[in-house]
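Structure tokens please, single chain.
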Amino acid sequence: MRNKSIDLDKIAASLDISPSMYHYAVDRYNGISKYLESKGIKAEFYPQGSFRTGTVTRPMKNGVETDFEIDVICLLNYDKNIISAEEVKKIVGDALKENDTYRKKLQPEEDRCWTLDYAEVSGDVGLKLDVVPAVPEEPTKILKLIDLSINTEYAKKAILITDKHENSYGWLSSNPSGYGSWFDDINKKYLEIDLRQKKEKILNENKNLFDNNAKIEDVPDYYVRSSLQRVIQLLKRHRDIFFYRNGSKLKPSSVIITSLSAKIASETSPKKVDELLKYVINGLEDYCSLLKNEKPKERYDGEIPSYIKKENEKWWIPNPVDPDDNYADYWTDEHAKAFFMWISAIKRDLINPTPLNETQYINGLQTSFGKESIEKSINLTNSVSTAYTNPIEIKRPTKPWGMNIEFR
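Here you go.
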């Protein structure tokens, strides 16, 4: 009989950025940092988003896998009171344009970043590097965060990123490093499970990234994936396919998925991928009563935490390192309905099916991640043949497929 946890881990690994491409990305932004310093622009570069939390999933656009998109902060040590957001943005952009190599890769200016396109880094897989100019946050904001009970070490990492609207520039509060530390603190207990064995496997499979005399201890944690990180990767890909096949633009953002998954995972002891996935989805399902303006049911150990709230017809999913920042600020009731419909689909596709009924189990995996993807990531040689009739071809889809679920 198949092992569900192992299957899910392999599927998530097939969606992940490889250690060699991770190394390539780090090498690229470190190179930019050194180049800027040679131009008299001292900047600290560090990753943000899924690259920082180790939950990278290869993006999809219109059902097709696209290049990896890596976000990095370019933190300049300027005071926002003596330099404008436009000046900071253009300091970085103008320097990149002066270099032949970077100028050829530079894309048109984005609202918050400069994008460098590294096409086909490995096979047909390319890399887009989003460089986000920023300056340190004002001390008053940091003190406010601390007053709101945000961990002092998280709060101190707050920054201001440049934000362009049409031809007007401004500052936007952000704290990707503080968020990363918050996530690390939750993920730590999950990361420690089988850590040595995972590092040994990474070392053996990626000899080119390490010295000949490298030991297991030399493998950095950021190459390793915990069950929590795998769960988030699986949810992000299921989301992409589910909302694509149903023709909906109401899909939840990755930061919502990551934040809610981590908060729920913080409540329990470390679990295998399949067990944690079930725990997270059941935890999210508890909030569906908010659609009826009813209080979520109490859990076995008391009142349900306010990870998702609805107050005065406004949906709230607070940023864990800035309570005033609402990740669900764009949500309408339609977004919430679509979210909980997606949660129901995950239960149907991934939670309820078990290897005891292998046909149903494999069908659920293929519905979730695409037939081709499943065949490439897990060995189906000894599995029963399936009656799967609803495929999505990840490489070359022609049109949306599957159920015509109406989000209304």
